Amino acid sequence: MTFGWAYVLLALVVVQRLAEVAYDRRNSRALMARGAREFGANHYPVMVVLHTAWLAAMAVLTAPNPPIRPWWLALLALCQAGRVWCVASLGPYWTTRIVVLEGSEPVTRGPYRYLRHPNYLIVAFEVPALPMALSLPWVAAVFGVLNLALLAHRIRVEDAARAPLAHNSGTAA
Asked: Full-prediction pTM beyond 0.70?
């Protein structure tokens, strides 16, 4: 296998995802210790498999040095900046799971001031942007559609889990 920039980019994304999983575990444990509950646990393994398959498909199918696609790389960089903003805004409440702590107020800072689910919007763009940056339009299309379907389900589950909080606190979740 020839080593190229595409593999470096994929390795960076894998490292980022592993760091997110570690941060999720820490935050989820701390929230659960405070009485939080997890919702939608049945679809979480599907999400893990989807994202793992997405990364594996790109690793197998990409050329080591595909043509540079600056617009897709720029969108990907913008997605990464947005992800950092989301994680920083949620702080100890950021998880990859749907973990709800009863009595907590919804976060309304950062991008959450403008959107209910900014991280999901970022992921919706990121999933096709990375394979498009690697000249893999079929991977972008297939995983983009699968990811949107999963996100639609996840948003319904999350909104339902947070609805009692919004009702009890008088604020939007």
From this structure: yes
